[in-house]
Amino acid sequence: MPRRSYDQYCAIARALDAVGDRWTLLIVRELLGGSRRYTDLHADLPGVSTDMLASRLKDMERDGLLTRRRLPPPGAAYVYELTPRGRALLPALTALADWGAPALGEQRPTDAVRAHWFAVPLMARLARHFTDGTVRVIDIALDEGAFHITLGPGRADGEGETATPAYADGPAELPDVRLSLDAATCAAIAYDRLSLAQAIDSGRITLTHPEGRPEPAPLA
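Given the sequence above, the corresponding structure tokens read:
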């Protein structure tokens, strides 16, 4: 099927030709955390049909936003990963998260939640607080799951170097600090309703560091 286009000589229209369809940017959100199998994507995109997900992945591969590769044995499964053009959407997703934050409110009974959905807005907030260079890899532990953030340079998923923060699912092998908190606190920090220092001082976050790691500098 040929790609639909707005047929407008405008950069915004061209961008929406590629990412304006339903689910596309949420697939980008998932793949910003690293390579994912189709089944992993489907599990973390509740509400998407298998046909829709397959169609979007094909469209995104055609448009140069992601690639598909086969894992070596014994895995032998296909995984999807963002291209540099796809990863370049991180600032756009961060801006969208900031724009949408006032509409978020309290979690509704029908709302699904995954821990790593907080990662994109949280990266900028953590980079703002850990500025002395002693903290680079941060574990985030919620009841809903765990992920870790790498404050540049470097990538959390080991796929090359970047000067911007990145995140990956699961705990890091050697984090500099670990933050344990609930989803409500994570949302409050991610969407600038609470500072990290305030959350730690009030006991809403437990900050620990692995044995042998230096104590992190005090937060601003």
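Residues 154-162 have pLDDT under 50 and may be disordered. Try to locate this feature in the token string yourself.
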